[in-house]
Amino acid sequence: MKNRLSDLNNHLFAQLERLSDEGMTKEQIEQEATRGEAIVAVADQIIRNAALQISAAKLVAEYGNDPTRYLPQIEGKSS
Asked: What pTM does this model have?
């Protein structure tokens, strides 16, 4: 895992695909649902952290400084 926001998006869609697999048993569905809940909880924290980084970058930029190091990483670029 590369640990970028775009990777998070890919993981969330992969989980959605697993949950929509019609060939799963009831037990497998329950297991995937539990796994999905855990993924969503972690994803929420990652998104909150990214939002905090963006807020910090905006504050830094308001004072005329380069906010780049405060921004979350974007695919193909690094902070």
From this structure: 0.71
So where are the chain's domains?
5-70
The set of residues, in sequence order, having a beta carbon less than 8 Å from that of 8 and lying 6+ positions away, is: 43, 46, 47
Q: Half-sphere exposure of 37 toward its Cβ, with a 13 Å CA cutoff?
A: 5
The pLDDT tens digits for 17-74 are: 998 999 999 999 999 999 999 999 999 999 999 899 899 999 999 998 888 887 876 6
Q: How far is CA 17 from CA 20, 24, 27, 44, 50, in A?
A: 5, 12, 17, 19, 25
